[in-house]
Design a protein that fits this description.
heterodimer, A: alpha/beta, D-Maltodextrin-Binding Protein, domain 2, four-stranded mixed sheet, 45% helix, 12% strand, B: mainly alpha, MetI-like fold, two-stranded antiparallel ribbon, 15 helices, 2 strands, 73% helix, 1% strand, globular
Amino acid sequence: MKRIVIALILAALLVGCMAFPVTAENAEGWNNVNAEGYVFPDYSGETLSLMWWGSNTRAEMTEKVIHLWEEHTGAKVEFEWYDGGTYWTQFQAKMAAGTLTDVFQMGNNWLTYYDTIEPLNEYIEEGIIDTTAIGPAMIATTVNQANGDVTGMSNGTNARCFAYNPAIFDEAGVEYPTATWTWEDFAEAGRAIHEATGKPALTTLEYNSVAYSIFTQWQEGYNFYTMDGTGFGFNGDTAPLAYLFDLLTTLQQEGVIADYGIQNEIGSNIEADWIAYGDSAIVMLSSNQFQALSKVAAENGITLELATIPRYTEDGQSGMVVRSSQQMSMWKGSQKKEMAANFINYFINSIEANTILNCERGVSINSDVLAALKENADETTSKVYTIIDLIGSFPDAANTSPAEPAANEEISDVLKKTYFQGLAEGKFASAEEAAELFWAEAQEIWAKFEN
Amino acid sequence: MQATKRRFGKSANGFWNNDNTVGYLFALPFIISFSLLTLVPMALSLYYSFCSYTIGASPAWLGIENFFNLMRDETFLNSILVTVQYVAIGVPLKLVFALLIAMLLTKPTRAQGFYRAVYYIPSLIGGSVAVALVWKQLFGSRGPIVGFITSLGAENFNFFGSTTWAFLPLVLCNAWQFGSSMLIFASGLKQIPKDYYEAAEIDGAHVFRRFFSITLPCLSPIILFNLIMQLISGFMTFTQAQIITDGGPNYATNYIALNIFKEGFAYQHMGYACAQSWIMLLIMAGITGIIFKTSSHWTYYEN
């Protein structure tokens, strides 16, 4: 720490750059990587380890940024990356063996891995992680509300939304989705598209996510999980779920929504989605996946647009929320915490780095970075900014719970595999029965995690 | 060289020349790795199976609660059922394939070595993720096989979207890796004395008669060996189900190893997962035991 300050002062003197004086009043901003004449700490001969999940596109961008940081600091970064599914297996194996990487990408499921995460509060207070251009609301997206621990720095914000191919909508003579389109509108459009093309209209749907949304959309005050994630927030009313079970299962049996085999084949590999090849018209995704998807679609001459998730009623709540997409967290057992903090600082705050990363992990939480990126944004990225701004402007976005409690992994898996897929296989007498049974099982699962 | 050896022999005491010492010494690398990598983890997993345990946390003793819960866990019971189905269809299919190809390859031709190598290649690359991905493409909804079936008139057919058919590509992928069984069969076939066949031929026995009366009985110990090895590997099938179907749709291919993995790693119930793996061990041991017990009735040893 002292070494860095001295190095910075020396550098300031040598270059004669007055833009970066280390004075008392802006001590907070001393580690601003975007400042003119910023001198990177010297980590020659040291190594830092890092792991993340994501697409090929993400890996290419991240590697470029890693090489830049290596050039700046002389450090060597050992990195590994996996697809979203494999990542957590690797993570747990490393966690059990006590060999996690110094810095790792972490999702909103951080509560599950809480013991492995070093709170960043100290590093933010000392200014190693510079937060002068990050608003408190943005930092709050990764804070444990129970004790104020900063569990990581958000890589950016995103929202779950739909992407669609306007050319196919035109072909079927269907109107484009509006900001307040409903599930009924969606069903109508989907049926028309399926009839016109003979192919499924929708190929990827996050079942747990839309099922949670429908509760918020159903009635003001409802949420699947409460805002703080300490329980369920819908008074055991299973009507919303029964509505969605019925609608989606019917659409799937009609061929409007691709069957579970096709959806599983695509899996978390968004670049393989049929929409990129002109074989479907709508997919559900996280807004930050839009760039990777658009890149493949563009190779096939397809331009995609973003839309909101359908609502229950046009004038009801949206059930959508802008949240931290994922974050960079520090391993509690790391031997190189200061270096790790410096890496996170560069990764989150550097304009140079984020120009390469291009908000593919989410819309940057650093206002300087975002301003710089918006200036030169390409068309695809602009669409992501627009949808995030739109969703952020919905008055009810603040009422939508972003919580992912520890039991969520199992509850959401059971919801999809036992209930959605079981209903499609005719294992339940009705959508209402499936919804009732799910509610009973969800409470049972929740109880397992209480102990 | 001679001199050193003699000097070493003289200076070394009886302990180092003892056969047992030398034996244990040479076995030591195995003993150490077996203890550390198999015995200790097994003992731990037995302990965890009686606990509520999450990776990273300390286990809390539950007694037999995990096993009690398992008996009324529909997903788990279903996973046993589909695994038994998979094994019952997959293992015989694989052994028949292996024996068939092995018999074709016993005809001495110049290309014999080449063909054996070719048929063994799938086993070398068999269990890998890459092969699973290839099969996913091959049998996928946009793959050539579904394309062919659709061209025959089936509408919206898709292996992995159907609870009835999703298992088939997985079984075929397993059967395709028949190489190691094939090599064992091939060496077994070579051991059968030629004069049995010559005598049978002179007596006028046709091909099928020779196969059922000479080949099969003489080969029965080898069949027993292959059967047990394949049963065990069949029960442990994991990679293909995880990569290709993720256990779906609606748990149709949720094989027991995959279910254990999900419980332990995705849902964080490691103790419960350990209990499942012990049940799986008991089932495998039971089936293997039954086969061993009955084998005296259907295997034939010449000496």
